[in-house]
Amino acid sequence: MLDSELLQQLTNDIDTARTLRELTDAKYLALSERNLGGLEQLLTQKQALLALLGQHGTLRSQALARAQLSADRNGLAQFAAASEIGGEILAQAEQLEIILEDCRKANERNGKLIRANQSAVGTMLQILQGTSQTPDVYDRRGAAAKSTHHRPLSQA
């Protein structure tokens, strides 16, 4: 891979990563609103972008390996050092890394929202099915007493 091709690929990946970040933010809104149709569309788009970024990452790693360099930041720095546009390559790689880190953080935020929603839905299902832990009730003396009789909400 030529250095100009690598630079162009990094530039394209930056645009792809920005789109991925926007989709991740849109996914957060869809999760908040529990918009399942919107989530499906966003996930389909997100998978295509992730596949493209993965493909390009593999091509860059292979190009560095062919040049007998490590497929990491150090290898890229060595590759860039031998190029007239090495500074631009490193700048674009750094920018791509920053955007991908933002995507990772946004994805973690979405994961927390998903887990919170799962917990809330699970609790609601337990209540509706009558299998939830019965809260403590108080007897005449004000002492906590557990109720041993569970009834589904439909029979309450």
Please tell me about this protein's structure.
This protein has 156 residues and is an all-alpha fold. It has a single domain, classed as Methane Monooxygenase Hydroxylase, Chain G, domain 1 (Up-down Bundle), CATH 1.20.58. 74% of the residues lie in helices and 3% in strands. The chain is built from 4 helices and 2 strands, in the order ααααββ. A hairpin with a 5-residue loop joins strand 1 and strand 2. Helix 1 packs antiparallel against helix 2 and helix 3 packs antiparallel against helix 4. It is elongated, with a radius of gyration of 26 Å.
Q: Strand-residue fraction?
A: under 5%
What kind of sheet is the major sheet? 2 strands, antiparallel
Distance N to C terminus: 71 Å
**Broad shape:** elongated
Given helix and strand content, the structural type is mainly alpha
What is the second-level CATH architecture? Up-down Bundle
CATH level-4 homologous superfamily: FlgN-like
What is the fold-level CATH name, i.e. the topology? Methane Monooxygenase Hydroxylase, Chain G, domain 1
Poorly predicted parts: none
Name the quaternary structure.
single chain
pLDDT averaged over residues: 87
State the order of secondary-structure elements, H for helix, E for strand: HHHHEE
**Domain unit count:** 1
Strand order of the largest sheet: 1-2
Topology, number of strands: 2
Identify the CATH class.
Mainly Alpha
The residue fraction in helices comes out at over 70%
Over the alpha carbons, how many angstroms does the gyration radius reach? 26 Å
Number of helices: 4
